Amino acid sequence: MLTLNDLGARRMPEPLDSRLRDDDALDEIELTSRLIIAASSKDGHLTQSEVDEILGITNAG
């Protein structure tokens, strides 16, 4: 007898154990993703100013 899984239906994923969550790593992945997207949409290199803006760094001076 065929089951829904045999037909390609997806099972609901198990919830992740919250003890395995690494917010710092997730933040780093988010920032890196922003840099990759910005760099891939530009013909040349990103300037330091553009990188700072993408990362949310402001000049405190």
Walk me through the structure:
This protein has 61 residues and is mainly α. The chain contains two helices and no strands. It is elongated, with a radius of gyration of 20 Å. The mean pLDDT is 84.
What is the compact description of this entry?
The chain has 61 residues and is mostly helical. It is 43% helix and 0% strand.
**Unreliable stretches, pLDDT < 50, 5 or more residues?**
none
The main pleated sheet reads as: none
Number of domains: 1
* DSSP helix fraction: 40-55%
Shape: elongated
Termini separation? 71 Å
Q: Into which percentage range does the β-strand content fall?
A: under 5%
Task: Supply the key terms.
61 residues, 2 helices, mainly alpha
Question: What's the arrangement of secondary structure elements?
Answer:
Blueprint: H1 23-40, H2 48-55
